[in-house]
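Backbones bend. Our protein:
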Amino acid sequence: MTYESSEHDMRPPALVRLTVRILAWFAISACSKCLVMDIRIAERVGSIGTFCFFVFVAASPARAVDAPPEISGQTMGTSYSVKLRQLPQGRTPSDLQADIDRLLDEINDQMSTYRADSELSRFNRRASLEWFPVSADTAVVVARALAVAEDSGGAFDPTVGPLVRLWNFGPGPRTNQVPGDAEIDAALEIVGYEKVTARTDPPSLRKTVPGVELDLSAIAKGFAVDRVAEYLSGAGVADFMVEIGGEMRVSGSRPDGDAWRIGVEAPAIDARRAGWMLPLSDASLATSGDYRNYFESDGTRYSHTIDPRTGRPVTHSLASVTIVADDCATSDAWATTLMVLGPEEGLRWAEERKIAAWMLLHERDGISQQATLDFSERFGEPEPIGGVTAEGPPSWITFALAAALIGVAVIGLGIGGIVANRQLRGSCGGLAEMTDAAGNPVCSSCTNPPEDCDEFRRRVVDAAASDARDESPNRG
């Protein structure tokens, strides 16, 4: 599962930032009071005040940007989200959403296996071996699926539907029962990409064996992402992110000018959280995993990833695969392919085709990683986010502790100055007693006229001299 990672994922939590701001504010206030009370701490306070200012700035976001326009809805049994850097001129989010919803509904009418009247459902029910006319989009997607199936030796197979249902991963209630060998062999008789033919002119499909069915769930979401992206580009939108059920395509940059940050879900059964972040521009990304959709029977774990070549769930250690490619339909299909092939065969297959692939593997003591050369050259080692990593605690913890210590120290200095020094009366406060490097009064810094400050200063000097005489041990 993948999703766009917000800027807040990479910054200290809001409560920590707010606490640091409050500490800095109190420190600056305390320093200001010290400033008007005693010249002896003026230089010290000036330095502390400047430091507090930088602490306050550090606690603030690096860039203040408006939230990008966002459109979201439901499609294909999941959710979709579209984020834009800015709206095209003269268009509103409602305008764009209406067009996007119509486009997605049209794709559902063509390729959904959950709609009884879709093109694909009608083809699946058809017993005839004659050509069946379909839309151009359906013919193109089926042709692409069959091409990936042939290239992968059947690891990817759009006819795998009967096996998926047999293993209780299709629509309907799950029984968690393991099918017998005879049932698996019977299903394999009507599974096989070579049992379907597609042509684009005229757009149509044909079965070579009665009972064969097509299921495009491993490529159709990616195709839908591409269609929405093409629509946005045609509408004049240059910077956007489109996501459907975790499959993504991005163009340009985020509203803050940076690359889009895509969070890749950590393989965890009981929680959904981003484990790594990938910066992405002008590319598509899809992730396939086996760590959530499964069942157990007699102590054995059965993944929803079915190998069409054997008719059984995969048993290797691959937890998830992330693919980056130019278009999302390709990313989607390749991610499923590698999940079937597994870490060794899949890595070889991807390297031979120069695919940018990143794999997470189940290990006895956690999760390990491996990536193709193309992925490593493009991204290096993906950046972990959230939780404690091997490098130590999250950066915001260190940030918070340091800021708290600084705040306590600065407030202590300020309070010490307040308690230890008697406040001077007068509209100019302690500024009346301050001088510059040449010994000249700096009372002109205050808003009162200079002559008023001079008079106030003379009275302060006279009062100080009188106090000195009264306290002298040599008096009468």
